[in-house]
Amino acid sequence: MPVPYRIQAVVFDWAGTTVDFGSRAPAQVFVEIFRRRGVGITVPEARGPMGRAKHEHIAAVLAMPRVSAEWQRVHGRPATEADVQAMYQDFLPLQKSVLADGSDVIAGIPDTVAWLRQRNIRVGSTTGYTRELMNVVAPLAARQGYIPDVIVCSDEVSAGRPAPWLNLRAAAELRTDSPLNVLVVDDTAVGIEAGKAAGMITVAVSLTGNALGLSHEEVCQLSSDELNQRLREIEQEFRAVGADYVITSVAELPELLRGAPFHLT
Fold this sequence. Notes:
265 residues, alpha/beta, Rossmann fold, DNA polymerase, domain 1, 2 domains, six-stranded parallel β-sheet, two-stranded parallel sheet, 12 helices, globular
């Protein structure tokens, strides 16, 4: 890739990257909609496809061998598209009901956004949430000082992550010159894959999001050695899917961008 990178815009993910430390709100809802159908899934199983559009997320969990076998045992048949659609219809109102407690802006986000804007760097965002869900989340985040210039939702493009369309639409709406001038910041492997698919520079977030999956309080209960070991493992996983850079939280983004090979417009 060309050096230096001329950064015109940053496109942030939402849950786990800019709001909802630990990306806990969606995980608990996926567990619940399966429980309602007599099929228990673990939190790691619920988190596995995180970052995808929610319909595709449900289908991906159902396709997991253990979950598929359990569904067959409970229901006497494989899961169908009709089952996926019914669970998705349950997901939306249940997710809305927990978003009030799952939309806290992560520490450092407003300051980072202000730092970017002082340098004329545009601020976009993409999400696996639908517009209906973001109509709940965005006003709550705005009251806490986080207002991106652009929000692109999973139901507004032909395919969600790992396809590039969320990022490309955000870049177009932000009026950037090229995908090479855009930084994608995400806390999921599929989000990093989507950034790479769009030809953008990717920055993975290891501490605050789905990869670690802990609240701030739970993180504080870990020993330094355990936390550092887990963060090293998460960084390796992100590097394996193509992350160009890994930071623990968005609060570290200004420090990253002050260094080579970035040129800030």
